[in-house]
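request received
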Amino acid sequence: MELKFANRVSNVKASEIRELLKLTQQPEIISFAGGLPAPELFPKEKLKIIFDKVMEESGSVALQYTTTEGYLPLREIIAEQRMKPSGINCTAENIMITNGSQQGLEFSARLFVNEGDVIICESPSYLGAINAFKIYGPKFVEIPMDDNGMIVEELEKALKKYPETKMIYTIPDFQNPSGKTMNLERRKRIAELASQYKIPVIEDSPYGELRFEGEKLPCIQSFDTEGYVITLGTFSKTFCPGLRIGWVCANPEIVQKYVLVKQGADLQSGTINQMVAAKFMQEYNLDDHIDKIIDVYKKRRDLMLDSIKKYFPEGIKVTYPEGGLFTWVELREDIDARKVNMEALKEKVAVVPGGSFFPNGGKENYFRLNYSNMSEDKIVEGIKRLGNVLKKYY
Amino acid sequence: MELKFANRVSNVKASEIRELLKLTQQPEIISFAGGLPAPELFPKEKLKIIFDKVMEESGSVALQYTTTEGYLPLREIIAEQRMKPSGINCTAENIMITNGSQQGLEFSARLFVNEGDVIICESPSYLGAINAFKIYGPKFVEIPMDDNGMIVEELEKALKKYPETKMIYTIPDFQNPSGKTMNLERRKRIAELASQYKIPVIEDSPYGELRFEGEKLPCIQSFDTEGYVITLGTFSKTFCPGLRIGWVCANPEIVQKYVLVKQGADLQSGTINQMVAAKFMQEYNLDDHIDKIIDVYKKRRDLMLDSIKKYFPEGIKVTYPEGGLFTWVELREDIDARKVNMEALKEKVAVVPGGSFFPNGGKENYFRLNYSNMSEDKIVEGIKRLGNVLKKYY
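response:
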């Protein structure tokens, strides 16, 4: 067999994380590699009741096709319960349901990016987004971050320098992978720049509701008066990923473009999944559930950072994330985190080497640590083993 | 707001069917427009039990992320129960789960088609596929059909004439929209031509298991010795569409390319949906369920064709489909089916005008009728009203 694939296929390689996840499914591995939520926190009992009710009350509807935009009551609930508290004044017509926010990412590049166009993103940025965008053959321009997120002065310079920019991609809260959060002034400024340069901002917000401390910051879209900011949300981290429910929140005109793309892509997201999510949020308070997640993750973050302090050699920089799932480790420039990971795997510990989070490559002295998915004793033990590996370098 | 979209966006327009479906959701409309299965046949009670069991026995797994390829037991069951009886000797490694077969269609064009490449398809062809392909800017070459499906001599001529062909798309069983079925010899010949010209065949098979009479024909892939034929399957018509479970069945090397694309597109299909489908097929016999669907649809087909004979004016050609969901009506060349549909809508009956099923346009004297979704009395009444509309033209 000799098949010719389209040129775009050569742009894409397997996601390092998804491949690593296969390795780390062995139960003896202590994995800080994935971005998996803690399964013991899933509201299993409640969801079991809800599945039952939806099947009982409206099984025929739940098993049938529905509209591409998504199940209307769910879109209303998302607008009301999830987006309004983030400062976005919207209704169901601003919302289209996606299969997790990954689908929203891919659709965004499909809608806005021709081959050779520039996507501006944080440096580092989420590798799942980078991979989704790459199939459309963009150039990436990486904007450095400091402790307050993407440096907007550098963003403005890039917008001037690259008029072929078609999209700005940012994760303002507890960024993946860096764990950093963009401050209020920069959020306002990015909304202004989007209007000024007439360029869409894809605001990826999977972790914003998982804030452990400090004040919740409004979404970038809340400062957008013209409709250039598109926010992607998801229940994967605040509820459960197995239902595959995310959403696009944008100006209704833009939402209609996403609907066109989704029609061709997969017609619609699962009907029963959408009805179950809606019913859950009608009968229970998702915020109470999120509070429980926050309690557990905060403890795990604290324990991980404490253990790092205790077991890592000196001279290693680590982010202090105010929420979310990840911290980000910076090694001395001459140390290759891929090698560190290979050695850690021999000790049955896994991390994600940071190279893939830089779309233009060239930086290998970082790795990402996830603290949401491992129990407290495994966090301590894993960091201890990782410290021993690192001590050989320091 | 003035946003610049990517060039590919201008290739796509809203699906006429999905837009029509919104209209036809009014309960007083007799709709022959959609391709919806009969909801009264969904195995609701059994599925309610299965959802319950899956949540009870493995809720944490069902709500968590899973692999991009899909839930392994489901892939095994699909290979064993659905593909082997169609003559395809395969295992789980030949199967990747998709969100309905629509996602498989879109992924296929993404994998194989550059802008300006040729896709060869039947004339007419499924408009959801045409729309999914269009975003990649192909040229379509339409191959005429007779009562035995795509005319393979014409296919071969096209393959010689268009060396830039990158994909052959066909629906061999009870084709959408024509209702026609490709005979055995042609299936063999298409597999040979694929190898000879080294061009993938996308064999779309959503209806193959819904045969009312006559002998089941093996899939085109069953005659493929080299791996050029990719078969798309789905549970949307034989089980229920609301779970959004379809699959790609192909050579494992090709499946891995689809996996790469799915990683970027949406990571994976819903975990619980896949586990529920697998469990259902472990505990119940899907073939028994399909037999029930066949009984009902066969009656509805017979009734629709009888009513057409009774109420339509003479001189209108109608396909006799041996299975599936649709029949296809050919009007006199000077009659525009869009006008007929507008007049029918005034009488509260909806059909799909056939123009959109011809990717290069130009043929407006056809419409598609669906008989799976309306009750018997509505079929008779709807065809009667449609006949009255048509009588004005004859």
